Design the sequence.
């Protein structure tokens, strides 16, 4: 998994997020209770690219997709 793979998978959504090095999540909004944390809490590298960060346990690295 890479950030590019996740972004492609989530095309058509507003946001994508990577978690646990290999998980990809898509959505159009944040759930109630979601909170921003320090980036140091998202320290797992992506399974497909060790130069990218892909969240951590119960932490998503979240990105906004550009409007088409």
Sequence:
């Amino acid at each position: 998994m890479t950030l590019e793979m996740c972004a492609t998978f989530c095309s058509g959504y507003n946001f994508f997020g990577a978690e646990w090095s290999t998980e990809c999540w898509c959505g159009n909004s944040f759930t109630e209770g979601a909170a921003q944390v320090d980036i140091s809490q998202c320290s797992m590298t992506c399974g497909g690219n060790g130069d990218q960060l892909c969240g951590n346990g119960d932490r998503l690295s979240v990105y906004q997709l550009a409007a088409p």
